[in-house]
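User: Some background: our group keeps a shared notebook of sequences we're curious about, and every so often someone picks one and asks for a predicted structure to add to the entry. Today it's my turn. The entry only has the sequence so far, pasted here. Could you supply the structure so I can complete it?
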Amino acid sequence: MRLTIEKLVYGGSGLARTDQGVIFVPRTAPGDVIEAEIIERKKDYATARVVDILEPSGDRQQPYCPNYETAGCCHWQHIRYDRQVDHKETIIRESLERIGHLAWKEPIKRIVGPDRNYRLRATFHVVHGRIGFTREKTNEVVPITECASLVPELNDFIPYANSILERGITEVHAVSGPAIVANFVFENGSVKRIQRGDSPHIQVDGTQYRLNADSFFQPNRFLLLPFINEVIAQVGPSAKHLLELYAGTGFFSLPLARISTEVIGVEENTSAVRYGRENGQLNRLSNLRFVVGDVTATLKATDVRPDVVVLDPPRAGCGVTAAQQIARLKPRRIVYVSCNPSTFAREARTFLTAGYELKQVTLIDQFPNTYHIEMVGQFDRVLG
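Assistant: Of course. Here's the predicted structure to add to the notebook entry:
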């Protein structure tokens, strides 16, 4: 069938409307006129694949990563980068209106960087003695020799990793600072740790972070300091008692401790907390402490009264229950770092209902050439 792509949706596909309903088509761009084949029908929509591009969108460009066709990691690399960011802003606004019932008409600040060689972290899978990526929406592992998104040090690490792979290794987790720290994971769960380079640390504007291949660390090397500065700006200069939820190894906790009287970080991953505490000691921050625990359970039991709450949950969001518990603490400000505009909008609705007002929204394009969207929103309490 002949389709005209109207817009992009969160998840990466283009959307076309027909008399048979909505159809989602991956690897398309708004304005494309395509010949498509339906591959799956659901009650409310269908999914199709591109058979031929009859009239290409003006947003299109030639993909440059060697893995675009084989592994399919960079969902939007066929779209010009400046237009990718435009489409991401549109998705944020539509999510806020559709899910959060909030028509956000104010400007959305954008923080972007180079769209190549930005990624500090990678998880590789192993097939036939070589490392690679899983093909999009499958379990098939595609061997790779390089990736346009990875920093040069990780691309250099690929042949080295292949040369030392042992029988039984199923995954390799690596992070660059630019020294490489990597964990080779065996099928029985055991881990072999490898370090290449002098110092397993990364420094961001004077703050030292110990590298850990298995704990989350913000992946875009160009946006580390801009991301921290944006969160600090939204927290504001007068924070005293700050509660950070989903604190990880302290990426935000450490710089926030430099501007606050006290920072308490809550994180359920014990390994991440161990590294967070080591990072606090490394940076001589006596006003920072970490608590191991599930965020929802910890909030239910706590009697702390922070004036600012910062949260950076995984893609599933914090959930309505946790959002309600945060609001019950009555902080004057909530700064929500999100990697999913849908769950951000859902929790925003909860904060608005509890007497908060959304004051600003920032798009941080951590993952160029993909549909993934990072954002920061500031909520201020307006009721007593």
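Suggested note for the entry: The mean pLDDT is 95. The two ends are 57 Å apart (CA to CA).
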